[in-house]
């Protein structure tokens, strides 16, 4: 079940206004161009910011997310008709043939259980067409990102049009690696409402991620640094093993016959 931050209509509507700048999205958009992707699957698309960015540039996009409230926000945005929205996890996807599948915003960490992660990897692999790639990011556990998840470092007070003043902060609840649990709190001055969203993320090591990709039938082409958060995250670029190992093909050529 999605966290309240994404599933509660009042909180989902706040996600974009309260979100910091997202320079990472331009990095991913550049990778869409780098790999020549005309069809993209956005796994965990949330309120549709990245999906709509790509659709506005002529890319055919499918956005999938289990949180209906977030998808309703996405569907209400200008240009939303250009995107095919699917509610559910990646296993709910219809048959697809995309050139690139992406998970931005550390979506990979919400899959706490191994079976959910494996199911997602399998669904992504099935959705990729010839030469398709899978790109996603995840935080490096050695950098302990959770050390800054406290009220002092995360407190914000903003006034939003049509909403009024909203106070928000994050509190770390438990670190029991590989799991980290925290709670986000939101106070609405307009009516005194207090809403909370508790989340648990899984911090997999680079080696664990690579092993899980291999088991799921992927080959890791490379692991990049996150340009907008250098040294803090891994950006994986992978593709289905059967495409790499196809007779007459070689890794790195997108499945084209070798000369």
- Secondary structure class reads alpha/beta
The total beta strand count reads: 11
CATH fold name of the largest domain, please?
Answer: Rossmann fold
Q: Name the CATH superfamily classification of the largest domain.
A: Vaccinia Virus protein VP39
The portion of residues forming beta strands comes to 25-35%
What's the main sheet like? 7 strands, mixed
Structural notes for this entry:
The chain is of the alpha/beta class and 259 residues long. It has 2 domains: 4-142 and 204-244, Vaccinia Virus protein VP39 (Rossmann fold, 3-Layer(aba) Sandwich); 143-202. The chain starts with a helix and ends in a 15-residue tail after the last helix. The chain has a 7-stranded mixed sheet, with helices on both faces. Helix 4 (49-55) links the parallel strand 1 (39-43) and strand 2. Mean pLDDT is 92; it is low at 247-259. It has 9 helices and 11 strands. The chain is globular and about 60 Å long.
Set out the fold topology.
Elements lengths: L3 H4 L1 H10 L4 H12 L4 E5 L5 H7 L4 E6 L2 H8 L7 E5 L10 E6 L10 H14 E12 L11 H4 L1 E5 L3 E13 L2 E10 L5 E9 L3 H10 L2 E8 L7 E8 H4 L15
Parallel strand pairs: 1-2, 1-4, 2-3, 4-5
Antiparallel strand pairs: 5-11, 6-7, 7-8, 8-9, 10-11
Overview features:
alpha/beta, Rossmann fold, 2 domains, 9 helices, globular, disordered C terminus
Question: Summarize this, please?
Answer:
With 259 residues, the chain is of the alpha/beta class.
């Amino acid at each position: 079940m999605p966290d309240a931050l994404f599933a509660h209509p009042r909180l989902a509507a706040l996600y974009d206004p309260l979100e910091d700048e997202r320079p990472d999205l331009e990095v991913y958009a550049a990778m869409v161009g780098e790999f020549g992707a005309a069809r993209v699957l956005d796994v965990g698309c949330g309120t549709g910011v990245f999906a709509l960015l790509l659709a506005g540039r002529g890319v055919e996009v499918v956005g999938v997310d289990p949180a209906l409230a977030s998808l309703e926000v996405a569907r209400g945005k200008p240009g939303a008709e250009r995107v095919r929205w699917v509610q559910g996890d990646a296993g709910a996807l219809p048959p697809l043939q995309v050139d690139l599948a992406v998970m931005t915003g550390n979506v990979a960490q919400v899959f706490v259980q191994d079976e959910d992660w494996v199911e997602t990897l399998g669904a992504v692999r099935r959705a990729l067409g010839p030469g398709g790639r899978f790109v996603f990011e995840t935080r490096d556990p050695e950098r302990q990102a959770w050390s800054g998840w406290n009220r002092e470092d995360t407190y914000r007070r903003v006034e939003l049009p049509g909403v009024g003043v909203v106070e928000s902060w994050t509190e770390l609840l438990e670190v029991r690696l590989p799991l980290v649990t925290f709670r986000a709190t939101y106070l609405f001055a307009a009516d005194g409402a207090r809403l909370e969203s508790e989340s648990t993320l899984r911090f997999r090591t680079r080696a664990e991620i690579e092993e899980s990709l291999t088991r799921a039938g992927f080959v890791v082409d490379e692991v990049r640094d996150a340009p907008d958060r250098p040294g803090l995250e891994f950006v994986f670029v992978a593709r289905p093993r059967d495409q790499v190992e196809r007779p007459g093909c070689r890794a790195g050529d997108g499945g084209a016959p070798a000369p």
